Amino acid sequence: MLKVDNVTKKYGEIVAVNGLSFTVNDGEIFGLLGLNGAGKTTTFRMILGLIDDYTGDITIDGEHINYKISDKIGFLTEERSLLLKMTVLEQIIYYGVLKSIPVSDIEKRLDYWLDRFGISEYKNRKIKELSKGNQQKVQFISAIINEPKLLILDEPFSGLDPINVELFKSVIMDLKKKGTSIIFSSHRMEHVELFCENLVVLVKGKSVLQGKLSKIKKDYKKKNLLVRGDINKDEIMKCDGVEKIDKVNDEYIISISDESYVNSLFKKISKYDNILKFSVEDPSLNEIFISIVGDSYE
Description:
Blueprint: E1 2-11, E2 14-24, E3 29-34, H1 40-48, E4 55-60, E5 63-64, H2 67-70, E6 73-76, H3 88-98, H4 103-116, H5 132-144, E7 150-154, H6 162-177, E8 181-185, H7 189-195, E9 198-203, E10 206-212, H8 213-219, E11 223-228, H9 233-237, E12 242-248, E13 251-256, H10 262-269, E14 277-281, H11 285-297
Parallel strand pairs: 3-8, 3-9, 6-7, 7-8
Antiparallel strand pairs: 1-2, 1-4, 4-5, 9-10, 11-13, 11-14, 12-13
Helix pairs in contact: 3-4, 3-5
């Protein structure tokens, strides 16, 4: 279990992370979200032990970060961090030795993951000869070759086509099932919704939204009405509580400011002919994120 307890990091007068606290349990995928410059990278570096001059505590299973503990952490960075002139084998051996793994074990693990990712034929090819997608696979392997207790994934699907995104998803879910604690960071909110049960949103180093995703969505006042049928859009826009109406294919998405307006809108819409669907849905995490982060920057 990772525990971040009231952590603050300053660079001179600039507060990069401000009183941040969260817990990631074994076998949990936890979302750490925020715009660029929100404090995510600084948080990652503190967890990895690359920054130690902060206040507060960061522990894994009750132990503070040291070389022994950091060997149990894997980190997939958003930026490419591969040595392009090395072969895949040389690259993974390099990373594995840094994590104190015997070379014989590194190669066995590498063979398994190369097969899992469908790139066994590239074992002795130089990194620079690989496509961007296959380089991303090698980078992922470098992050998990030490069978980490904690895995940090920063934009793991960057540059991947849909088929490889699905492959990465299956690997991430397998790691979760084996008990790996995972911190997942992405600007793609649909991916966060897919994986994360709990999350924290950072703005200028401070948590502005935190907790269970299901509760966050339930507690958010704004709702969406999904309506299929013939309605008078201009008429509905004049109703109390209606903020906007979008049409996607043959369905209207009516955004309302509060669920207390649902009944009155149902009565109004049910009077139209050919209403085939009327449902109430929580807003997407993307809508909530834009609303919360936008308000925080005003």
